[in-house]
Amino acid sequence: MKSFNKLNGIVAPLPQVNIDTDAIIPKQFLKTIERTGLGKHLFHEKRYDQYNNLNSSFILNKAPWNEAKIIVAGDNFGCGSSREHAPWALLDFGISCVISTSFADIFYNNCFKNGILPIVLEEINVNEINELAHEGIEISVNLEEQQIIAKNKIYKFDIDPYRKHCLLNGLDDIGITLETENKINSYEVKLNENKWHVPDKIKTK
Prior knowledge:
By secondary structure, this protein is α/β, with parallel strands linked by helices. It is built from eight helices and seven strands, in the order E-H-H-E-H-E-H-E-H-E-E-E-H-H-H.
């Protein structure tokens, strides 16, 4: 998994509340187990018309937001079914940070497992960033300092220290396991030795 530290990029406003995972990546695109190639289907029903042409009125189809790396979203982003394809699609499109007042729990956890930083801010701060996003500006996200800089204003955010460590070091579930590779190998060696060890015959009276 790619590490996350600092991010500078266009922020796209998606203020609608309760954007669910089926809206993020519709069910017909869940056949693949590959993490790449899903970006073109992100928000498919909003990005394309009935003839599969790009919908020019949708924010992610307009410049400069079609190059967005950050989304500022409405409350309860990522609700609905627990599909890991949702963060895959966001990341493949180029989105690696989502800002909202709240996230659905499973989507929130899946973001960290795939290198996306979900940031929870108070409603007043999300609204301010949303207003700025309509101007097509770039903002900066610094995970190490736990802050967002938008038009010289700083927004501090909280994050679980363990999740922060994983993102900074690019550790997904496999990477976390491999951090203890030496201990695992040592255990396997001992297990193999014990497997072939024949105990002394127990003496009986």
